Amino acid sequence: MAVIYGNIQSERLMRKVPFAAILPSEFQNGEKVEPFRTLYLLHGWNDAFDAWINQTRIVELATKYNIAVIMPSGENSFYVDLENGSYYGQYIGEELVRITRGMFNLSHDVKDTWIAGLSMGGYGALRNGLFYNKTFSKIGALSSKILQSQEKDHDLTEENRMNQAIQYIIGAKTYQDMDREKDIYTLVNKESLPDLFIACGTEDFIYKESLRLHQYLDELKIDHIYKESPGDHSWTFWDVYIEQVIEWMVSDSNH
What we know:
Layout: E1 2-10, E2 15-23, E3 27-28, E4 31-32, E5 38-42, H1 51-55, H2 58-65, E6 68-72, H3 88-103, E7 113-118, H4 120-131, E8 138-142, H5 161-170, H6 184-187, E9 195-201, H7 207-219, E10 225-229, H8 235-250
Parallel strand pairs: 5-6, 5-7, 7-8, 8-9, 9-10
Antiparallel strand pairs: 1-2, 2-6, 3-4
C-alpha cells in the first residue's frame, strides 16, 4: 500500500490542484492485479485534501479492504460549479475520475467507483454522486450539510460571512431561488440513483438535515441506508462510520 501526494493540472479549475491517493500494490507474485475499486473521498469545510489521512484510519482501512482512495482538494467550494469559473462539480464528477484512472490502476466500471465525504464533503458526495450517476454507483454521506431549496431552519438574510459564502455557492440570495442542480431534494428525484448510505450523530448541530433527508427518501420510497448514533460533528464519529461505509461499498449486497 502506497500513499501518494501530488498535483493535478485541472482544466475545469484552471490551475494545479493538490490531491492524495492511497493505492494498493499493482503486482502480486509478479503478476499485475485487476484494476482497483476506488473511493473518491471528500473533506469538509475549512479543511484540506489530506485531512482524512491525518485524522482517521483511512490508510489502514484501504489496506484492509484492498481499495484505492483518492482525496482531492475542494477548498470551501461545496464541490459545485462556481460562477468564477472554478467548476468543482465537473472536476470531481468528470475530470478527476478521468485523470486518476489514467494515472493509476483503477477500475473504469461504475460498480467499482464510489464517492463519500463528511460535512461539506458529505454534501459534495451527495450532489456529485447523484448528478454524475453514471460515474458513481454508491454514495456515503456523513454528517452532511444538505443544501436544498425548501430549507426552513437557516435564514440567509442575516449578513455574515458564512451566509455570503452559501449565497455564492448556491447562486442565489435565498435557498428558495437556488440552482436546482445543487438542490439535493431535486436530485434524488432522478432515475437510476446510486445506492445511498447516510449517517449522522444525534448531537451534531446539523443532525436534523440528515434525518429530514432520510424521511424524505422514505416518503419517495427510495431505498437507502440511514444510521444515527450518539456523536457530534467530529472525527471520532467519522472514523467509526467511514469503515461502515467502506464495508458496505465493497459488499455485493446493497444492505
